[in-house]
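User:
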Amino acid sequence: MFYVKNVPGWERVVRIVLGAVGAALSILLLKGIVGIVGAVVVAGVTMSGLVGFRPACAMVGRRLAKQQKR
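Assistant: Predicted structure:
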């Protein structure tokens, strides 16, 4: 792969669940284009959970514990 996963498993689950809930609430509670934009923004959180990589964490050097032993 082109990247190294830097989000632990428990955080990935939390990101996926909160992202899905946030997208659904955004579409249901916010009307029109604002709801769609909100859902797209929250989709980024969900994608980082699905992929296991977060660019902001990579920029500050965050690594998983098993990767630090190298």
